[in-house]
Request: fold
Amino acid sequence: MSDKLSKMIKRINNVLDFWEHSASRLPDKIAFADEEGAVTYAELVCNAKRMATAIAARVSPRSPVAVLGGKTAQTVTAFFACVYAGCFYVPLNPAHPVYRKKQILATLGNPLVLAERGYENMLSDEGEQNGNCGSNANILFYDEALATETDCETLDKIRSGHIDVDPLYVMFTSGSTGTPKGIAVSHRSVIDFIGEFVGLFGIDETDVIGNQAPFDFDVSVKDIYSTVAVGATMQIVPKKCFSFPMPLMDFLVERKVTTLIWAVSALCIISTYRGFSYKTPHDIKRVLFSGEAMPIKHLKIWQKALPETLFVNLYGPTEITCNCTYYVVPQGVFDKDVLPVGTPFPNEKVFLLNDNGEGVSAPDTVGEICVSGTALSLGYYNNRLETAKAFVQNPLNSSYNEVIYKTGDLGYYDNDGNLCFVGRKDFQIKHMGHRIELAEIETALTAIDGVDRAVCIYNADKEKIIGIYQGGGESAQVVAELRKALPAYMIPNHFEHIDAFPLNENGKIDRKRVKELYLK
Reply:
């Protein structure tokens, strides 16, 4: 990426400038493509403005618009249309239960729903009137919006009233109370993050980004906005490809994908089922992964298959705009036991606090990972109570207002000053008088030959640790190897050997489902 473009990205105050700049340079280049078709940069701007005019006639700027459609280039266009209308978009996952979609719409105050025709039925339980969803949903269809004549005067007026801290999107994550929490992220946070992201990892207009993440998962934000920021192309990988490695490898090779910004579990599908023995996608220049701890053995398989490729471990919750730290894996085969999450992105402060609110800086001393900076989200939409719990004043700063986000994740610094992820605070248990991180047991399990993936859960009633693993290893062998790495009180009391872990819509291991199956 050129210095001129980098400076331009840092100066803008609306993400619309990202793709308008790319559209002015590369109007006929494909911006987004799916299995059925594609949209060029010029078409993207034109179509989004048409849809935006229809949206603006129905709702005011800074209003939420729920978007319900397939994982297609047209749905991405719908997101941009919401932004042209001065609104913020909220992706609704069609695969999610109706009840969850209803909860989201209720939290948003029953907003306008921009929907692909035929998907409106996914807002209703069987027996309800189609599209009613029990909350008087107001639906605008994609095709109806696309047929609207662009009102440039109205859109220009909306644009002139924009400020960079206006919300860009809201993405919902699970809430501890059982109600989804909507994380609102501003234009400024995305502009700052993406400006650094594409520069650090050398993403430019020659790249083809292979999108794996669902659109309601913030990993997709890196795909979409990296694409339009530099004038790249995003190929939307069909979900069905992630069931078997062969069609997935075919897609990556045929579409000449150069960049993977994927969840760890998606990468592990290829390494677990020996996808590289079928075909190697040699065009891949960089693999950026996040969402879960990457098992070292899987990383080694990828590095051996793609020795010239850049591998980067990314860390960060949705509340801080995608990621706050990164670790560039050294060339060659990684030979350490722990893969760090690295150092903060520029313009982000990442630090550790102990239980007393004191800073932690000594190596190998565990603390809670906290973040401050422009990348912080606007908090939880329509939920002041939960926002106040997680977004708090920095206890290390008594001189001026400095809001930090307490991630609930635990970490420590290694001897090189890299941050290392330990696990969730709520994954910590008290067993046989010892405080134990279940993530540490999982790491030890996945290091064993014959164990591909592993999850540990705790049955508090029976005071038993349950180790669940995927792979060809026998339980006796697994226990013997664990005894070489862990103290006796950390060895699981019971093991379950399974063929495959259930995955959630974001491509991560579905821990909730695992608990339902094995915590009985």
